[in-house]
Amino acid sequence: ESAELYVQGNRPELAEKELAEVELLSVYLPAGLSEAELDAIVAEEVAAAGEGVSMKQMGQIIKAVNARAKGRAEGGVIAAKVKAALA
């Protein structure tokens, strides 16, 4: 996002620096989960919570999904998917 803003602000040298940092960091970060993989984990954890699962158990399910995702998905995305699955 920063690189895009720098390009819009006519600061290509700063945009290049940001893009180089992203490239370097991507080598060390774990690969993110695909939508399908994350959906599968959410479905499995909702099913594991048992019949009659409700929004009251949302926090527990999010915690379980986060543990399985191991930093490969954003917390907000996980929470939204769990909420949608429970709705």
Quick tags:
87 residues; 0% strand
> What is the strand content?
under 5%
Q: Could you describe the largest sheet, including whether it forms a barrel?
A: none
Morphology call: elongated
**pLDDT below 50 for ≥5 consecutive residues: which ranges?**
none
How far the N terminus sits from the C terminus, by CA atoms, comes to 32 Å
* DSSP strand count: 0
Assembly classification? single chain
Tally of individual helices: 5
Helicity range:
over 70%
Helices and strands, in order, run as HHHHH
Structure description:
71% of the residues lie in helices and 0% in strands. By secondary structure, it is an all-alpha fold. The longest helix has 17 residues, at 12-28. It is elongated and about 55 Å long.
Tell me briefly what this model is.
This protein is mainly α and 87 residues long. It is built from 5 helices and no strands. Helix 1 packs antiparallel against helix 2 (12-28), helix 3 crosses helix 5 and helix 4 crosses helix 5.
Topology of this protein?
Blueprint: H1 2-8, H2 12-28, H3 35-48, H4 58-69, H5 75-86
Helix pairs in contact: 1-2, 3-4, 3-5, 4-5
